[in-house]
Amino acid sequence: MEIGTPEDSELTFIPQSPEKPVVLYGTSIAQGACSSRPAMAWANILQRSLGYPLINLGFSGNGKLEKEVLNYIIEQDARIYILDCLPNLTTKHRTGSYRPGRCRRKTNQGDPQRSHPACRTRRI
Question: Of 24, 39, 47, 84, which residue is least crowded by CB atoms under 10 Å?
Fold first, then answer.
């Protein structure tokens, strides 16, 4: 792979942010598949406007609130969790026959929280 840069330029790593990240889990829309260019994906716009690191777990054709994925997500010590899965949930998922994953997260003291933010739905 080659990257064309001027002779006197220098590439350096961006230091890791000490801030807790925003964790986003969702569909191809969250992934950025519908944007005209990568910088215009709503997750990237959100990350730039908030100034916090963002972990984007948007997957094309997925984002169905699977228990295993939710358990992985809540392992992350995040500032906020965004679950944007509605476009991939079919009629089967929206009826009583489908039970989306439930999750529990342990606090720093080791006690389980029954009502962790990753397990609640909020409109903002």
Answer: 39
